[in-house]
Amino acid sequence: MLRTALLALVLVLAGYASAAWLTHDFQVWTAEGARRMEVAQQPVSVPSVTVEGPGIAAQSLPTLLAQGGRITLVDFVYTRCQTVCLSLGNSFQQLQAVLQADRAAGGGSGVRLLSISFDGAHDLPAVLQAYARTLQADPTLWTWVRVPDMAQQQVLLQRLGVVVIPDGRGDYEHNAAFLVLDAQGRLLRVFDVAEQQLALDYARHLANGGRL
């Protein structure tokens, strides 16, 4: 009887320890939540993949991020998407409007927007340009790129925790978020799609010299 009680206690303690480890001391309960917490605790350097897009000559992503010394809000999309990417595009339109208002008021938040296509084989620069035009993207605030090399694209997605699964019909299942990157090419925070204002506020905070 005592042995059974001791075994049960050991199993409970083991289960508790496992749950605590898997959930970062019970602070998160999903892989996505864990990813966001890990990024907040330890920024992730972006790989030196080559990107290109409308008005963007082929160059490494860290080089692009370093231009202007701004904080960059990033989303991952593909132009043939008819679901979540449309929501991301709408959110970026709203964020662009805020940044345009900042500029019109005589200021500047030091924040820009970058959409990266993970359908590089289809989303050629001309395709991205046409899509950006439908969203009235201001190229001084919101740029679009693709990673033309598929192996490099996969490296980028894996490094930043972006999950993309082809559905076999030309579309993709993918997670969606707003990523905050600095001019040093580091991923600093990941925000849910419902947290666009929080993502912008954090990006502005960093752009104004705030601490991580």
Briefly note the CATH topology name of the largest domain: Glutaredoxin
Query: What is the rounded distance between the termini?
Result: 54 Å
Number of strands: 10
What is the CATH architecture descriptor of the largest domain? 3-Layer(aba) Sandwich
What proportion strand?
A: 15-25%
Helix and strand element order: HHEEEHEHEHEHEEEEH
Characterise the protein shown here.
- This protein is α+β, with helices and mostly antiparallel strands and about 210 residues long.
- It folds into two domains: about 35 residues, no CATH class; about 160 residues, Glutaredoxin (3-Layer(aba) Sandwich), CATH 3.40.30.
- It is about 45% helix and about 20% strand.
- The chain contains seven helices and ten strands.
- The protein has a six-stranded mixed beta sheet with strand order 1-10-9-4-5-6, with helices on both faces. Strands 2-3 form a two-stranded antiparallel ribbon. A two-stranded antiparallel sheet has the order 7-8.
- Helix 5 links the parallel strand 5 and strand 6.
- The longest helix has 21 residues.
- It is globular.
- The termini are far apart.
- About 10% of the residues have low confidence.
